[in-house]
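Notes from hallway chat w/ T.B., transcribed later so I don't forget. T.B. wanted the structure written out for a chain they're using in a teaching module, and asked if we could keep both sequence and structure tokens in one place. Agreed to drop them here.
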Amino acid sequence: MTVGYGDRAESLPVSVHGAVTNVSAARGKKRPLYVLPNGDGLGYGIFVLDDDTRRYLAAHIEDIPDALSRGSAWVDLWENVLDAPRTGSEFLNLAARALPKERDEQNTQLILSYVPRAFWLLLPPKDRIARAPALEATLREGIAQARTASQRSAWFNTFRDVVLTADGLAWLERVWRRQQKIDGLTFAETDEITMALELAVREVPGWQQILATQRDRTQNPDRKSEFEFVMPALSADSAVREQAFERFRKIENRHREPWVRESLHYLNHPLREEHALRFVTPSLELLPEIQRTSDIFFPQIWTVAALEGHRSPAAAQAVRDFLARHPGLPERLRWTVLSSADNLFRVAR
């Protein structure tokens, strides 16, 4: 357990043997400003933060002097935010304030990894639109100020994953068209493919031509084949997307599992959430067959891709209804569904 005093943080040994544990090593010490039950980052689980600690982290998390304790604080804070998703907007405010001050590269990448999840999972659509201009400006500034290529790439990838404004999308499109250079950052073919997919799912003007151009531009034959496989999932036509899902019912269309995952991800993208609700139950119904016919890890990958773009109570209820209708579902698959739906359940609640 880590206790913090502003200019320093102290680690105290704790051995938990019951519902209540008295931390003898803390006896006689000054009252700390914050307490991190998982200060060394080695624990696994949800460590519920006390109210004083939550308030301190919200105002001063970037002031924690030790990089490891600071990173652990971000992990614990994120888990606590998921249990109270109405604070998603506050979390993004905190990230925007703290990121420019963070000097540890691993912590920077950690915080940036939370930003798209908070943006898509914890904010309703109207709030995303309201926050987008300021968030994109912060990320563009981070790209410009990053000290290393890996940091610059992390900032850019986060921008690419959340961009919504017309100006931001126009800038991203210029980068994809190779008309806009970013100092110190070069893009591989895989980067340009992802940019094309993200532009298309947002239905920017000319999105069909962007996909066609990227398909023709892609040199690697395997990547080109994968891109062509995923393209129908990007269509603005809901009937085409429904056909893209229906092909998964045939085993021969599920052999390339990474291709299937990518396609299912875009079919269930948060921007398509309302229409994609119809895919939730059929995706779960296919799980027993997928378990029989695929790699041991693919049922989890499939279920995460099917659920990660959803945040509605209707989607959560669809999962619960599926489990109720299948009491004999193998325990391993039941665990797969429950773990994959954890964030959905928490946000919907």
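Follow-up for T.B.: Residues 125-145 form the longest helix (21 residues). Might be a good example for the class.
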